[in-house]
């Protein structure tokens, strides 16, 4: 409901993913509860979801319904997450704005006269507007970092090949820099939880080209800024 509300105001959703209810019922019956159990997750347009298109903002892809989930969507579901919407992008995704001729212009919920940034602009707008608490974007030259900055969110572009890109529709350009999928949310803890959930056996088995290195909590905590009282005593 929240997502619909935000979408009406800023035009950030391109599609609602069906079957969420069934998935939740299935999850409830499972003994093992995943790290993302019951969390609705928004997904950037070009990440393949079974039964949906990945348009990249281009008309030529409109008829191509994907037959299976991308690896990242399979892993999110394995961890109990519920992908529930696909979000808008600029045409071809090589742009720092967020509009295309199919779905139109996405606005920034903090200021509708401004852009939410790109190319994961639909994610930025939906999360900042309160329609999603965790989203998956992608970044080659700032496509997670810019909308996170423009919309006042946290985002992470992981190291190259850390998360499987298998089953995502590529940009039509061949670029020297490796694009990466990564999480977007309102706080760093959510990003860490998402990375921890994604870096699991399931992903390493589905895509053997990804180095099977689990999430390292110690490294993350080493980067935590000291509280003012600890600094006084430190």
Brief summary:
Helices cover 30% and strands 14% of the residues. It is of the alpha/beta class and 234 residues long. A six-stranded mixed β-sheet has the order 1-3-2-6-8-7. It has a two-stranded antiparallel ribbon with strand order 4-5.
Q: Which series of helices and strands comes N to C?
A: HEHEHEEEHEHEEHHHH
The radius of gyration computed from the alpha-carbon positions, rounded to a whole number of angstroms, is 17 Å
Mean pLDDT across the residues is: 92
Give the total of beta strands.
8
Helix content: 25-40%
Percentage of residues in DSSP E strands:
5-15%
CATH topology call: Amidase signature (AS) enzymes
State the distance separating the first and last CA atoms: 47 Å
The CATH class is Alpha Beta
Assign the structural class, choosing from mainly alpha, mainly beta, alpha/beta, alpha+beta, or little secondary structure: alpha/beta
Give the number of helices.
Answer: 9
The major β-sheet equals: 6 strands, mixed
CATH architect. name: Alpha-Beta Complex
Shape: globular
**Number of separate domains:** 1
CATH superfamily: Amidase signature (AS) domain
With strands numbered from the N-terminus, the spatial order across the biggest sheet is: 1-3-2-6-8-7
Can you tell me the residue ranges where pLDDT is under 50 for at least 5 consecutive residues?
Answer: none
